[in-house]
Each structure stands twice: as structure tokens, then as C-alpha cells.
Specification:
The chain has 23 helices and 21 strands. It has about 775 residues and is α+β, with helices and mostly antiparallel strands.
Length: about 775
């Protein structure tokens, strides 16, 4: 008796014997059924033992693509995403009626024949010959399973799908050989199980479990006889027998299956007759896929998780490898999203900014010391229906993660300047003259021994909120009131490099990925950043100087067949950005902003909090970024298109003459954080005593009627960088024109052979 080869295949003699029979049968199938114009020996004439033997001995079976479930930190479902809606189930969890129905209609002799059914071939050949067309196929269930494996392997590549389904001799040869292998290795029960899990049932449902849920909103194990017959009938032509779109045609097909089940003895004729009278009984669950299905307004966070998966090398070295894992699915992704914090964020957003408003808001909360993203939401809902205000642009994140180009943070950047100064040795009670108006200082030192020089010929002047805001000021008062001239004098004193270096240590970088330019205007928040960046940057203060990279994923498991395996996930990396003393000092300064400064409307009552307001040039955006020791959050309000100024505007049903960081974003932050922190421990800051730098009384009432700090109630730039009427001008008054021209490139700078900065150059 010939022996098997060491590789597990048959000997050449055995292969030749099998191939002889297979060739004749396949020739009959292909030539007489699939290609009636070709002679019955067409395949045999083109085939040979050698070509059959050249095929790989083992068929590679790719893991079946399945749905992926994204969970919040408590295990609650956020969304279900998939490339193919499929849930793999064992045969024991499939109704016996379903098992019998699919065998009866697709391959009634399944348990009697091998990989090829000779009787079936001859029967189909005879019927097709009499009808003159392809009326009946002869592929066994095993052969159909093999073909479906090739289709699954092709994925969404149309060329590969066409190759997997094309009616050619080569494909039939390959299909037949692998059918023989599958029969020998798996056995009938496993083949049936695999077939039921891989087959397409229409309506985006792959596999019997997804089909049962789609058409009947129940599990496959609970299907009754008429439901099973309907699903089994769909397989031959999912579009033709689609019960949702053609109930009559689907009913006819179902009844054919029931009749066939009675003919082979699976059910009695009486059962079949009764089942044929029953209505289809559809209870359709509409296909739901992707982050659009996310609950609690977490669609943007869901999309951020997807972006992390597709971009982080931990999930694969190449973009293609990562996409393959994601599209294969079967993943359970446990995220960092805190359901309480997310619910609170969305509630506050909905209360304060309507989705139909001319401007939008985005809010993000992170956990200091871990980098975990706890909440992420915005006023414009996730979706593709632009006419109804939906968008897929994530306003909270950087451009490379599905966001935009960012927004100028205004005076919320000033604490970073203060941190750099303190780290550089500046005392916390440092006093600057801080005049109401001053020329922009020049030169200012930059990195690598360079200097920024303003040689525009028309030096810009900057000014404070109003003419009564005149120094000297120390750091505490200047921070609480966000005095522009104080912070410009500060960066001019310490130089630009320590500030850009500190920003980088805190993870505060431009949303478009460009480097932070070496220009002194960064002290006033001119470089576009995202809310997630600012929230996580301020979390560095809350964690006493430790910066942690943001993370959204806690764990990932993947089901492959009957096994579950854990995947490695990105970890937050933490590093010290500043000393504890510096962080504690900043916390003390920013507590003053909330307690007795421009951010008083954002205060959390008895719970210690700190933060900073900010409003950008021309009021295109307003911010509040704040934190407690256990949560940090950022709220941005503005026009993503950078076209609508927030003067004379209605937001959330309320009219505003001019919008300030403490007036709209501040209350959003307060409500959001109050709900997110409810029930959480009340933690204290490590306060630092900061002695007064000036030993004289200040007129504390002179700015009682100010709307915001830095935010230049005269409609000027960057909290008073460019002046105008500042005597508490009414919101309905026209904005005055600047009293001087602005040097070209003042805010973003230029780079013409070394020139870079506020209309200046490096020397």
C-alpha cells in the first residue's frame, strides 16, 4: 500500500488515482454545468497530475473577520465596528433546524459523499443538459466552503475577489484539491460549522449568527424551522432572495427549502406545509457599524481609538499590518473613557452650545499622572450628514489623529511661560513695570545662540486690557489679571528657548505637527494647538511636574477561532517636565485666577481648582483650561473655519456682545468638571507661599466690570496686543481700527533665509 509523503499529502500514485476521478468529475461540473459550451473533457484536457501536485499541500485558512467591540473603562459598550459583521459561534449554538436546512438545500448528500459528489454531478449535468442552461450546480458544501475561504482571504480587494470567484479551470482545480484536504482534516461537523460562520447571508451579515440577529433579532440557536429555511434559502443569491426588499421572492425560496427538508426526511410533510403558511416574521435590526453608533456622544473618542490603532507601531510595524488586524476584527478594546466624565462633558456641552450654533465647542478631560483620556466630546455630532450639522472632524485632537490644524490658545499659554521662568531661577514674586502700553522688546534671545530682532521699521506696540491697568505688577497679580505687558517682559527677559523647551516637555506642540517657532509672540498664545494637548499639558501642573503622554486604550483582546489572545497596547510614558516646586508654584498662581481672577465663573466651590482663561485675536476662539489634582480639562469655543468672530453672537440661546474665556468656556468647564468629579475624593494642592512683590495697596475695584482678562474688551488682538477703545466699550459698538500697522509675519513669523518671528529676524 503506497505511503503518504512526509509532508502529510498523498503519494503520487494516490494523487494520480484521485486526480483521474476528480478531473472527469470537475470537467463535467465545469464544462457541462458552469460552462455548457465547452466539452465534457475540457478540464481533463488541460489538467495533469503534475499541475495538481504543484498546488500547495495545505490551504491557508485566514481568521474570519468579525465585529470589534469598543468598551469604556467600566466595561460598558461604546460602539461596535467591523469590516464584516460576523460573530463566530460553535455548531452547538446553531439551531438544529438551521443545520438541517442548509444541508438539505445546498448539499443533501453531504454526510454520504466525500469532497466530490459523483451522483450530484451526474444529476446536475443531466438536468442542465435537458434545460439547456445552468439550472443546478454540483459543488458540495465542502467545495463551497473552500471558495468562501478564498473570498474571505481576498478581503475588500475587488481584484482578489474577482480572482477568487472567477469561473476558470484553474480555480476549480484548486478548489477541488483543497476540498479533498478539508474533508480529510476537519470532518463533516467542523466543515458545516465553518461554512455556517463564513457564508454571506445578505444585508451586510456574514455568518449565521449575524444573519439571525439581522433578520429576526435573535440568536442562531433560537431559530425555528421556517426562519432557518428562510436563511438557508438566501445563501444561493443574497440579493435575489433578500426578504427585506422582496418578500414574495424570499417566501417562494423559503418554501422550496421547506419542501426539500421534507423530501430528505428532516421534517414531516405536515410540518413543512404548516411552516409554508407562516409569515416570514421578520424583526429586522438595521445594520449598525462604526463610531456613528457610539453612545454618550463618544463618537469622536471612538474614532480617536481607531486612529491610535491604525497609527501606533505597537499594533504592527507597517500601516498595512495594522489595518489588517483592525479589519480582521474580533477585537474587544477596553478604553480609558470614564462614563461618568463623558456623560458630564456631553451634558455641559449640550446645555451651553447648540449643534446649530455658528460656533462650536470641544472639551477633553485627562487624568494627571497617567495620561488617560477620560472624556472627549463636542457640540457638533459625529456623522457624515453635513446638512444636519454632523462632522467627522475631531475638534479635540491634532491633525494627524483626525482633527484640524488647531486653534490659538491665547493667554492659556502664559502659565507655560511662567513655568519656564521659574525653572530658569526667576523668583515667584518677580516684579515688572508692566506699563499699559509698550513697544515690543528687541532683541530677544532664542535657541542655539541666536537672537530674534524686530527690524521691521515699524515696531509694534502692545497694551493691556484697559488704560487703568498699569504696573508695576508681581507674578501673582499679573497672572490673575493676565497682564500682557508683564508676560512679554518676562519672555524677553528669559528668552524664547526656555519657553519652547518647556512647552515640548509638557507635550504642548502645534496641532499641525510643525515645530514651535522661535518667536516672542508665543508668550501670548499665537501657536495653534488642540484641546487634548492643552488639557494634557495642564495635567503636568496637576501631577506636580510629571508629564505623561495621552493614552486611550487600556487593553485589547482578539478572538481567533475558539481562542482569545491579548494584544500589546500603547503605554503612557511619563517624564519630569519641571520640579515639584515649580509646579506647586504654578498651581498656587492659577488658583488665584479661579478664586479672584478672570476665571472666577469656572470655580468649583469647596473643591480646590486652578486654571486659566484665554481669548484669541479678533475673538475667533475662547478657552478655559483648568484642573484639580485628579482631573484636568480643556474647553475651546470658536469657529473651526476661523471665519466667525465671537462678537454680537448668540451661543446656546444666549446673546453675547463679546465672548471671553471666563464667560462661555469657563461655565462649560465648571459644569463638566463638577459632574465628572462627583463622588471622587477631594484632593488638595501643595500650596506655596508667594510673598507680595509690591508693598502697596492696589485698586481691586478698577477691573470689576471687565469681561475677561487678557481678552481685550476692545476687540483687539491677543489680549491687547493691538489696541483700541478700551474704556469698557459696549458689545454692540463697532470695533476700532488699530492705531498702527502690524509688521508682516508678526504672529506666525517668516523664514526667509533666517528671518523668523514677529516680523523680525535672527541675528
Amino acid at each position: 500500500m503506497p505511503k503518504k509523503r512526509s509532508g502529510g499529502g498523498l503519494s503520487p500514485t494516490q494523487q494520480a488515482a484521485k486526480f483521474l476521478g476528480v478531473s472527469v468529475l470537475a470537467g463535467a461540473v465545469l464544462a457541462g454545468i458552469a460552462l455548457p459550451a465547452v466539452g465534457a473533457l475540457g478540464l481533463a484536457a488541460k489538467g495533469s497530475v503534475e499541475s495538481f501536485d504543484e498546488l500547495p499541500a495545505n490551504m491557508k485558512t485566514p481568521p474570519l473577520s468579525q465585529r470589534t467591540t469598543i468598551l469604556d473603562a467600566d466595561g460598558g459598550k461604546i460602539a461596535t465596528v467591523y469590516s464584516r459583521d460576523r460573530t463566530v459561534v460553535p455548531l452547538k449554538d446553531v439551531s438544529p433546524y438551521m443545520q438541517k436546512a442548509i444541508v438539505a438545500i445546498e448539499d443533501s448528500r453531504f454526510y454520504q459523499h466525500g469532497a466530490v459528489d459523483l451522483k450530484g454531478v451526474l444529476r446536475a449535468l443531466n438536468k442542465n443538459a435537458r434545460s439547456g442552461e445552468v439550472a443546478q450546480g454540483a459543488s458540495t458544501l465542502t467545495q463551497q466552503y473552500v471558495k468562501n475561504v478564498f473570498v474571505e482571504e481576498a478581503g475588500d480587494d475587488p481584484t482578489k475577489v474577482a480572482q477568487a470567484t472567477q469561473q476558470t479551470i484553474g480555480r476549480k482545480i484548486r478548489e477541488l484539491k483543497y476540498a479533498i484536504q478539508v474533508e480529510e482534516e476537519l470532518g463533516k461537523k467542523k466543515i458545516l460549522e465553518n461554512y455556517l460562520n463564513i457564508t454571506f447571508f445578505g444585508q451586510q451579515a456574514y455568518g449565521v449568527e449575524a444573519a439571525a440577529q439581522r433578520y429576526f433579532s435573535k440568536s442562531a440557536k433560537d431559530l425555528n424551522v421556517q426562519e432557518a429555511a428562510l436563511l438557508a434559502g438566501i445563501v444561493q443569491s443574497p440579493s435575489r432572495y433578500d426578504p427585506v426588499n422582496d418578500e414574495a421572492e424570499a417566501t417562494k425560496r423559503r418554501n422550496i427549502v421547506l419542501q426539500r427538508m421534507a423530501e430528505v426526511g428532516d421534517i414531516s410533510r405536515a410540518q413543512a406545509a404548516e411552516a409554508m403558511k407562516a409569515p416570514l416574521g421578520l424583526k429586522v435590526s438595521k445594520p449598525k457599524n462604526g463610531c456613528i453608533t457610539a453612545v454618550k456622544g463618544a463618537g469622536f473618542f471612538c474614532d480617536y481609538v481607531r486612529q491610535v490603532f491604525l497609527t501606533d507601531p505597537v499594533f504592527g510595524k507597517t500601516k498595512e499590518e495594522r489595518a489588517k488586524v483592525w479589519n480582521q476584527g474580533g477585537l474587544t478594546v477596553r478604553t480609558t473613557l470614564d462614563p461618568q466624565a463623558q456623560k458630564s462633558a456631553q451634558r455641559s456641552i449640550k446645555e451651553h452650545v447648540y449643534k446649530s450654533d455658528e460656533v462650536a465647542t470641544a472639551a477633553t478631560i485627562v487624568q494627571p499622572g497617567t495620561g488617560k483620556i477620560l472624556a472627549m466630546g463636542q457640540s457638533r455630532p459625529y456623522g457624515v450628514d453635513i446638512k444636519n450639522g454632523e462632522t467627522t472632524l475631531n475638534l479635540s485632537v491634532n491633525d494627524d489623529m483626525g482633527g484640524g490644524m488647531g486653534y490659538q490658545p491665547g493667554s492659556t499659554f502664559k502659565p507655560i511661560v511662567a513655568a519656564a521662568a521659574l525653572e530658569d531661577g526667576m523668583p515667584a514674586n518677580k516684579v515688572y513695570s508692566s506699563p499699559y502700553q509698550m513697544a515690543y522688546p528687541s532683541p530677544v534671545s532664542a535657541c542655539d545662540g541666536k537672537r530674534w530682532v524686530n527690524d521691521s521699521g515699524n515696531p509694534a506696540k502692545l497694551e493691556n486690557e484697559n488704560s487703568s491697568e498699569v504696573g508695576p505688577y508681581d507674578m501673582k497679580e499679573a497672572t490673575a489679571k493676565s497682564v500682557n505687558t508683564y508676560y512679554v517682559q518676562m519672555i524677553s527677559d528669559i528668552g524664547i528657548c526656555p519657553v519652547t523647551t518647556m512647552a515640548k516637555k509638557m507635550g504642548v506642540e502645534r496641532a499641525d505637527g510643525d515645530k514651535m517657532p522661535q518667536v516672542p509672540s508665543i508668550a501670548l498664545g499665537t501657536q495653534e494647538v488642540s484641546p487634548l494637548t492643552m488639557a494634557n499639558g495642564y495635567a503636568t501642573f496637576a501631577s506636580r511636574g510629571m508629564y505623561c503622554t495621552p493614552v486611550a486604550i487600556e487593553s485589547v483582546s482578539q478572538r481567533v477561532g475558539d481562542r482569545k489572545k491579548s494584544l500589546e497596547v500603547p503605554k503612557s510614558t511619563c517624564s519630569r517636565a519641571m520640579s515639584e516646586k515649580t509646579a506647586d508654584t504654578i498651581n498656587t498662581l492659577l488658583k488665584g485666577v479661579v478664586e479672584d481672577g478672570t476665571g472666577s465663573k469656572a470655580g468649583l466651590g469647596s473643591r480646590p481648582s486652578a486654571g486659566k482663561t484665554g481669548t484669541t485675536d479678533e475673538r475667533y476662539a475662547a478657552w478655559f483650561v483648568g484642573y484639580t489634582p485628579n482631573m484636568a480639562g480643556a474647553v475651546w469655543v470658536g469657529d473651526p473655519a476661523h471665519k466667525r468672530k465671537m462678537s454680537g453672537i448668540t451661543i446656546g440661546g444666549q446673546s453675547y456682545g463679546k465672548v471671553f474665556g471666563g464667560e462661555v468656556p469657563g461655565p462649560i468647564w465648571r459644569v463638566m468638571m463638577s459632574g465628572a468629579l462627583e463622588g471622587k475624593p477631594v484632593e488638595q494642592f501643595n500650596d506655596v507661599h508667594i510673598p507680595d512683590g509690591i508693598n502697596r495697596d492696589r485698586d481691586k475695584n478698577r477691573d470689576d466690570d471687565r469681561g475677561d482678562e487678557d481678552d481685550n474688551d476692545n476687540g483687539g488682538f491677543i489680549g491687547g496686543l493691538v489696541g483700541g477703545n478700551n474704556n469698557g466699550g459696549g458689545g454692540g459698538e463697532p470695533l476700532p481700527a488699530p492705531s498702527f500697522s502690524i509688521p508682516e509675519g508678526f504672529f506666525r513669523g517668516q523664514d526667509n533665509g533666517g528671518g523668523n518671528g514677529n516680523g523680525g529676524r535672527f541675528g
